[in-house]
Amino acid sequence: MVPSTDCVFIPLEFADAAYRYGHSQIRQQYRLNRHTDPVSILPDLLGFRPVPRERRVDWTLLFDAPQAETAQRAKKIDGRLPGSLIRLPVAITGDTEIDAYHSLAVRDSSAGTAWDCRRVKPLHAIWASSR
Known about the structure:
Blueprint: H1 12-23, E1 29-30, E2 39-40, H2 83-86, H3 90-93, H4 104-114, H5 123-130
Antiparallel strand pairs: 1-2
Protein backbone atom coordinates (compact mmCIF):
# COMPACT_ATOMS: atom_id res chain seq x y z
CA MET A 1 0.00 0.00 0.00
CA VAL A 2 1.35 3.42 -0.97
CA PRO A 3 1.15 5.98 1.82
CA SER A 4 -1.06 9.02 1.39
CA THR A 5 0.96 12.22 1.80
CA ASP A 6 0.65 15.86 0.84
CA CYS A 7 3.71 15.67 -1.36
CA VAL A 8 5.51 13.08 -3.42
CA PHE A 9 8.99 12.14 -2.25
CA ILE A 10 11.69 9.51 -2.44
CA PRO A 11 12.76 8.22 0.98
CA LEU A 12 16.13 9.68 1.93
CA GLU A 13 17.66 6.24 2.45
CA PHE A 14 16.74 5.15 -1.08
CA ALA A 15 17.87 8.40 -2.71
CA ASP A 16 21.22 8.28 -0.92
CA ALA A 17 21.79 4.63 -1.86
CA ALA A 18 20.96 5.30 -5.52
CA TYR A 19 23.29 8.29 -5.52
CA ARG A 20 26.19 6.23 -4.14
CA TYR A 21 25.42 3.33 -6.50
CA GLY A 22 25.79 5.60 -9.50
CA HIS A 23 29.05 7.12 -8.31
CA SER A 24 30.62 3.70 -7.85
CA GLN A 25 30.15 3.01 -11.58
CA ILE A 26 32.08 6.06 -12.82
CA ARG A 27 35.22 5.10 -14.71
CA GLN A 28 38.64 6.61 -14.01
CA GLN A 29 38.86 7.85 -17.61
CA TYR A 30 36.65 8.15 -20.67
CA ARG A 31 37.56 8.09 -24.32
CA LEU A 32 35.65 11.01 -25.83
CA ASN A 33 36.64 10.70 -29.46
CA ARG A 34 39.01 8.84 -31.73
CA HIS A 35 41.54 11.67 -31.93
CA THR A 36 42.53 12.29 -28.30
CA ASP A 37 43.68 10.26 -25.31
CA PRO A 38 41.13 9.25 -22.63
CA VAL A 39 40.46 11.91 -19.99
CA SER A 40 39.48 11.94 -16.34
CA ILE A 41 35.92 13.01 -15.61
CA LEU A 42 37.16 15.74 -13.26
CA PRO A 43 38.60 18.26 -13.77
CA ASP A 44 38.92 17.53 -17.51
CA LEU A 45 35.15 17.36 -18.12
CA LEU A 46 34.06 20.03 -15.67
CA GLY A 47 31.25 21.94 -17.35
CA PHE A 48 30.14 25.54 -17.59
CA ARG A 49 32.64 26.54 -20.28
CA PRO A 50 32.98 26.24 -24.05
CA VAL A 51 33.84 22.76 -25.27
CA PRO A 52 37.25 22.74 -27.01
CA ARG A 53 37.66 20.73 -30.22
CA GLU A 54 39.66 17.97 -28.48
CA ARG A 55 36.79 17.44 -26.01
CA ARG A 56 34.04 17.01 -28.60
CA VAL A 57 32.21 13.78 -27.94
CA ASP A 58 31.80 10.93 -30.38
CA TRP A 59 28.62 9.52 -28.84
CA THR A 60 29.18 6.10 -30.43
CA LEU A 61 32.00 5.64 -27.90
CA LEU A 62 29.53 6.08 -25.02
CA PHE A 63 26.36 4.48 -26.41
CA ASP A 64 26.02 1.39 -28.61
CA ALA A 65 25.25 2.27 -32.20
CA PRO A 66 24.72 0.20 -35.36
CA GLN A 67 27.97 -0.60 -37.22
CA ALA A 68 30.13 0.80 -34.40
CA GLU A 69 32.41 -0.92 -31.92
CA THR A 70 30.92 -1.73 -28.50
CA ALA A 71 30.65 1.43 -26.42
CA GLN A 72 32.50 1.97 -23.15
CA ARG A 73 30.69 0.43 -20.23
CA ALA A 74 30.15 1.66 -16.71
CA LYS A 75 32.68 0.37 -14.22
CA LYS A 76 31.60 -2.72 -12.32
CA ILE A 77 30.50 -1.95 -8.79
CA ASP A 78 33.41 -2.54 -6.46
CA GLY A 79 33.00 0.04 -3.68
CA ARG A 80 35.75 2.26 -5.07
CA LEU A 81 35.46 5.73 -6.50
CA PRO A 82 37.79 7.02 -9.20
CA GLY A 83 40.56 9.31 -7.96
CA SER A 84 38.92 12.34 -9.54
CA LEU A 85 35.93 11.91 -7.19
CA ILE A 86 38.19 11.49 -4.17
CA ARG A 87 40.03 14.70 -5.08
CA LEU A 88 37.20 16.98 -6.24
CA PRO A 89 38.34 20.28 -7.74
CA VAL A 90 37.80 23.53 -5.83
CA ALA A 91 35.49 24.62 -8.68
CA ILE A 92 33.02 22.04 -7.30
CA THR A 93 33.71 22.06 -3.56
CA GLY A 94 34.58 25.71 -3.10
CA ASP A 95 37.29 26.76 -0.69
CA THR A 96 37.23 24.62 2.43
CA GLU A 97 39.43 24.58 5.51
CA ILE A 98 38.93 20.82 5.89
CA ASP A 99 40.84 18.99 3.17
CA ALA A 100 38.67 15.87 3.50
CA TYR A 101 35.68 17.84 2.13
CA HIS A 102 37.29 17.60 -1.33
CA SER A 103 36.36 13.89 -1.30
CA LEU A 104 32.98 12.77 -2.63
CA ALA A 105 33.17 9.74 -0.32
CA VAL A 106 33.38 12.02 2.74
CA ARG A 107 30.59 14.22 1.38
CA ASP A 108 28.37 11.16 0.73
CA SER A 109 28.91 9.71 4.19
CA SER A 110 28.25 13.02 5.92
CA ALA A 111 25.18 13.98 3.85
CA GLY A 112 22.77 12.39 6.32
CA THR A 113 23.97 14.63 9.12
CA ALA A 114 23.02 17.67 7.06
CA TRP A 115 19.36 16.67 7.33
CA ASP A 116 17.50 17.45 10.51
CA CYS A 117 16.16 13.92 10.90
CA ARG A 118 13.93 15.00 13.78
CA ARG A 119 11.82 16.84 11.20
CA VAL A 120 11.65 13.93 8.73
CA LYS A 121 8.79 11.55 9.43
CA PRO A 122 9.99 7.91 9.24
CA LEU A 123 8.51 5.94 6.36
CA HIS A 124 7.01 3.31 8.67
CA ALA A 125 5.15 6.09 10.53
CA ILE A 126 3.72 7.43 7.27
CA TRP A 127 2.51 3.96 6.26
CA ALA A 128 0.99 3.34 9.69
CA SER A 129 -0.90 6.64 9.64
CA SER A 130 -2.24 5.97 6.12
CA ARG A 131 -4.06 2.81 7.10
